[in-house]
Amino acid sequence: MRLIFFSFLVEEKHVDMARIEVSNAALCLDYLNMPGFRTANITINLVPSGYYAFMNYAAPYWLRHLENGLTQADYDCDLLLELQEPVEAFLAIHFTAPTKQFYRSQDNVRKLQFFRAFKFYDNLETAVVSTRKELTFLGEMKPGEVALDLASVVCTVRGYLEAAYLNATEKVDRDSLERIYGENMFKCPRLSCHYFYLGFQTPQQRESHVEKHTRPFRCDIISCPSSTMGMSTMKELIKHKKDIHTIIQEDDEDDFPEETELAPPRSPKPAETTTKPREPKAPKPLKVKRARITEYRCPQCQKVFSKKFNLDSHMITHGGRRDFLCNVCGMGFARENDRTRHQATHQEKEYECGGTLNNGQSWGCHKKFARADTLKNHHNSVAGRACIQPYLQRQQESLYGPSL
Q1: Burial of 130 by CB count in 10 Å (0-12 exposed, 13-18 middle, 19+ buried)?
Q2: Best CA proximity match to 254, nearest among 232, 225, 287
Q3: Cα separation of 36 and 293, whole Å?
C-alpha cells in the first residue's frame, strides 16, 4: 500500500525524485569528504560518538544516487550544479590514479555529460567505471583497477571499530556500539558482497568467509588439504584432481542430447504436371528426459555420494583385497590414495604449529605434524586456537591497523 501511494505521489509530481536523488548523492559525498575519512585523521576516538555510523551506506551508494540524479534531472543545470562542489572535493580527497585504462561506454559518457566542462571530468569518469566494477565484480580487484581509496579507508575504520568493540571492558560500552553500528560488527571488505552490510558475530566467521572469495573452488576428496584450502579457479581444481587424484572431470551423460536415427536421404521428386495436396505429417513422439541422478548410495554402508566415480572409489574399500602395501611398515590398503596418505605419516613431520611474527615474537606450541590437514584439525581444537591466536591477531593488525 505504501509503495502504491509513493508511486502516486511521484506520478502526480508531488515528489521530485530528481531532487531527492541529487540531494542523497550530495549527502553521501559531503559525508565522505569529512575530515575523519582521510587516512591521516582516522582515529578510534571518533568511534563511540557514532561518527562512522553512515559509512556502510555512503561508501557504496554515492554512485547509485549520483547516476540516478543525473538521469532523472534531465540536464537541469541549476539542480545539478549542487553536485559540482561535493564531487570535486570528493575526487580531490579520495581519487588515486589507476594504472589500467578503462573502457568508456557511450551510456556512461551520456550520463556524465553535464560534468564534461569541468576539469575533474576525466577523474570522475574513471572513478565511476572503477566503482561500478567494485560493486558488481565477485572476483579480486587488482590494485591497478581501483580508482578510489574508499575500500582501504573503510577497512581502516572498521579495524578501529572492531578494536573498540573487542577491547570494551564494560557490557554497556559494547551495547552502545551495537546500537550504533549493528550487532554483527565483523563485516566482509568486498563491496559486491551482501556481508559487507550484514557482517558476522565473530572475526573467525568473517575470516572463514573471506577465504571463499579468494579460493572458492574446493576439492571434493575429504582427506585432501585442498578440500579446506580451495583453489582460485575451476581450471586449477580440474588440473589438481587429474594430477593428484587421477580423476578426469567429465560431464554427465544427461548433459548431451540422446542419439537419434538419421533420416534417410531424400530422393529427388519427379517432375509433375499437377500439384498434389500434401499429406499431413504424423506428430513426432515426445522425448522423455531421464531424471538426473543426484545421489549415489553405497549398498553396504549407506554412505551417499554426489558423483558416481566417488562411489566407485569408495566401493573398493569394502572389498577384501589390500593390494597397495606401505613401503615402510607393509600395511595393506585398498586404494592407492589411502596408501599414499598413510606413508606420509612415516615421513619427517614438516608441518609445524608455530613460527615467528614480524616483531620477532614466537607463536604456537611448535608441535609437528605429518600432514597439512592434521595441522588444520589441531588449529580447530581448543588448544590449537590458543596457539594460532597471536598469528591471527597480527594478521588483523596488518589489515586493519593496531588495536588501541
Answers
A1: buried
A2: 287
A3: 57
Q: Where are the domains of the chain?
A: 2-153, 293-336, 348-400
Bridge partners of residue 148, in order along the sequence: 95
- Second CATH level (architecture) for the domain 293-336: 2-Layer Sandwich (3.30)
Whole-number Å distance between alpha carbons of 131 and 139: 14
What are the cell numbers at 92? Answer: 580531490
> Cell 584439525 belongs to which residue?
377
Q: What is the rounded CA–CA span in Å between residue 194 and residue 176?
A: 24
- Tens digits of residue pLDDT in 136-152: 876 677 878 899 999 99
Question: For 189-227, how does the pLDDT look when each residue is reduced to its tens digit (9 = 90+)?
Answer: 888 888 899 999 999 998 888 877 766 676 777 667 666
Alpha-carbon distances, residue 391 vs 180, 362, 385 (angstroms): 30, 9, 10
Residues in Cβ contact with 77 at an 8 Å cutoff, skipping those fewer than 6 apart: 114
Residue 30 neighbours by CB under 8 Å, 6+ apart: 86
Residues 6+ apart with CB under 8 A from 400: 155, 156, 158, 159, 160, 162, 163
- Grid cell digits, residue 29: 559525498
Banded pLDDT at 83 (limits 50, 70, 90): very high
- State the alpha helices, DSSP H only, in 84-149: 84-94, 106-111, 121-136
All residues at 6 or more sequence positions from 118 whose CB lies less than 8 Å from its CB, including other chains: 84, 88, 124
Q: List the beta bridge partners of residue 333.
A: 324
- Per cent of the chain over pLDDT 70 is 80
